[in-house]
Amino acid sequence: MYAIEVEKLRKEFKSYSSRSGLAGAFRDLFTRNYKIIRAVDDISFTVKQGEMVGYIGENGAGKSTTIKMLTGILTPTSGRVVVNGMNPHKERERFVQTIGVVFGQRSQLWWDIAVQESFRLLKKVYRVSDQDYNEHMDHVIETLDIGPLLDKPVRKLSLGQRMRCELAAALIHNPPLLFLDEPTIGLDVLVKLKIRQFLKEINEKYNTTILLTTHDMTDIEALCERVIMLDEGKIIYDGSLQRLKQNWGEGKQIHFQFRDIVPKEELMLLVDATWEQGEDRYSWIAHVRATDMAHVIGKVVSSYELKDIHIREVSTEEIIRNIYEEGIHHG
């Protein structure tokens, strides 16, 4: 059963440009110059129930626009969207009962009233029974460690405290599907760990489907087995995080500190690797596949005197950056 089905989804915006000068401004009154910008460009994907999927891309890639269409905030220009078996836009009333949404930059809590008053209001909005509320929310409040915050007005909370309360608020009706847009932005490490741990728990306990957009690759690594990568409104990768790392990132970086200056040409003749200059003239970094590592080190060690050598894994963040820079379209 799919939680999300998206077929040839497209969203276009009109971008108006102003003409210069007074005459231009006058002409603008009657006819505007505009061009069509395609924020989301015919994308198709499905998400199974219970999956945790990372939806990633640079700023302006179309992530937020997609989420807004999936949650019914924006109407698609064309294409088909079915979320929890419904059209998010047409069956609004019924639909919002089945999703939870956390936008890192936008609050669903009332600013001036105590957190638990907000929770009570949301409980009414979602028509959650007392029994369901108590059973479910006691666990949520305890796990996210927000008990001491319930009496405080939202404006008195730190960002980390507010985000934990936002997450709890999104889960009051225990929705089967959770949209998280940058949920850990600006949070410290301990709060991030707490939120990740909690998301894993609800996924295991209730089979909650989670679609997560974030710039924090450690969030993705901790939570998602699958990533969908967007670039300029198109999907450039949809598959397992593991495969992504194997295709692009099974590389290691070997940092060699030589005793003498070694020309790059010599190194390139010696072993087949991508060489780049290290932090000084005596050091070189070899980018190699994990399987070639022993061979490269053996060759270099037997040919030159070395002061030092160390090996670095390539981080997911670097892999993603490389993919964007190279614009590779692997399937």
From TrEMBL:
The record's section on PANTHER family has: ABC TRANSPORTER ATP-BINDING PROTEIN, ABC-TRANSPORT PROTEIN, ATP-BINDING COMPONENT
Taxonomy of origin reads:
Bacteria, Bacillati, Bacillota, Bacilli, Bacillales
| Keyword Nucleotide-binding appears in the UniProt entry | yes
GO MF terms listed in the record are:
ATP binding; ATP hydrolysis activity
> What name has this protein been given in UniProt?
Putative ABC transporter ATP-binding protein YbhF
Q: Which residues form the ABC transporter domain?
A: 24-257
- Superkingdom of the organism of origin: Bacteria
* SUPFAM superfamilies the record matches: P-loop containing nucleoside triphosphate hydrolases
The UniProt keywords, alphabetically, are: ATP-binding, Nucleotide-binding, Transport
Q: Which organism is it from?
A: Anoxybacillus ayderensis
